[in-house]
Design brief:
single chain, alpha/beta, 3-stranded antiparallel sheet, 9 helices, binds 2'-O-acetyl adenosine-5-diphosphoribose
Length: 241
């Protein structure tokens, strides 16, 4: 379905902060460690080559944690799903998060630029498979029947996914909002600049100013579970959706 010209085109970028109130830890808040690990130990192709056992165990633990009964989408995830229902294809939801809380909150189309925890990827064919259990260097790949499965995560030094689609939509954006992301990891941290150059109104929703705060036209300061539903409700009433 093409976008509706009378409604705004919105690109939404979410980061770990939107899932913090659902019980998932962010990356850079306290000690600089992600669940007790330095990022180079678990989130680089070199780490996977040198210590695959640790990397498999790490993502197996994250996948299991994500499926615990107490990990649920919060009001911010639900509000973004409401916005998608109201605006349809005029909204593009891009997330750096590898959790599935947007989908569980009701969002139908989510661009996971850093991959997904509940998915495994064949390192040879790049085919991906929905995967809820643990897997490791002994697990046979469904497509080639060899032991080629890796976490479906974009590691540092690898190219994020959907970049062409995202840049196309940023070039047409009327509104760009970055929610719960520290603005430290590129290319996502550069989206605000591109949106601004395309004439979009740029908004940062965060507990505190992120690294690229100066590039935003507006700041919504506070927990995502309160500022995001407010922003969505305002938009819905402004456009009588
Ligand atoms: P970070 O951990 O760098 O930043 C989380 C941001 O969320 C911070 O700016 C916090 O202030 C904010 N925050 C925390 N709680 C919040 C709340 N309740 N409401 C609103 N904001 C809140 O996470 P990302 O920016 O997502 O990449 O990190 C980007 C990438 O770096 C990740 O996708 C991951 C990581 O290394 C890969 O794994 C490839």
């Amino acid at each position: 379905m093409p976008a509706n010209q009378s409604l705004p085109n919105i690109v939404i970028l979410t980061g770990a902060g939107i899932s913090a109130e659902s019980g998932l830890k962010t990356f850079r808040d306290n000690d600089g460690l992600w669940e007790n690990h330095r990022v180079e130990e678990v989130a680089t192709p070199e780490a996977f080559e040198q210590n695959p056992g640790l990397v498999y165990r790490f993502y197996n633990a994250r996948r299991a944690q994500l499926q615990q009964a107490d990990i649920k989408p919060n009001a911010a995830h639900l509000a973004l799903a409401r916005l998608e229902k109201a605006l349809g294809n005029n909204v593009m939801l891009v997330t750096q998060n590898v959790d599935d809380l947007h989908e569980r909150g009701g969002s139908e189309t989510v661009y996971h630029m850093h991959g997904q925890l509940l998915s495994a990827r064949c390192a040879i064919t790049q085919e991906t498979f929905e995967w809820r259990d643990s897997f490791d260097h002994t697990t046979k790949c469904p497509c080639c029947n060899r032991v080629t499965l890796r976490p479906d995560i974009v590691w540092f030094g690898e190219m994020p996914m959907f970049m062409e689609e995202i840049y196309n939509r940023l070039a047409q954006a009327d509104i760009f909002i970055a929610i719960g992301t520290s603005g430290n990891v590129y290319p996502a941290a550069g989206f605000v600049q591109i949106a601004k150059e395309s004439g979009a109104h740029t908004i940062e929703a965060n507990l505190e100013p992120g690294a690229t705060n100066a590039l935003f036209d507006e700041s919504l300061t506070g927990p995502a579970s309160s500022v995001v539903p407010q922003w969505v409700d305002n938009l819905i009433s402004m456009y009588a959706l």
